[in-house]
Amino acid sequence: MVFFWLTLAFMNQLSAQEQIAPVFKRNHVFVESYLIRHDFSSGLVSLNYARIFGKKAGTELRIGIYPDFNTTFSFPITFTWLIKPQRKHQLEIGLGLVYRLEFSESNIYKDIPAAIFPLMYRYRHKSGLFFRGGVNLIYSWPAIISPSLGLGYLF
Fold this sequence. Notes:
mainly beta, Porin, 1 helix, 9 strands
């Protein structure tokens, strides 16, 4: 009889642990460097903020700024799906647009937004630091595949 009650108490503890959702950091900031730059900016890095949404944390919205520190500013906006978002190793598949503004002699020039399709690997450390790397298909004129590397922090 004692064995029955101990087993029942232990099973209750196991089921309680399964019901507790893991703490998941949903905000992150990161820098990303495009190794092959497109015509829309000659900058070196983009500065980005992203927010993860949903109960299962499988979707992400990112907005960034990609300056060339001269006359051009580009603004990447992407919507990304995270595969295995609760794990250290993740895959990101996304789509988005890159808006470009160029300031020249008191005029502002706007281009047609370029479409961007990121395919990234992300490693997330328990400290909050993460690394991401992969390729971006940038569909504009001309269309290119640009490898990129990023480093950031989850909070």
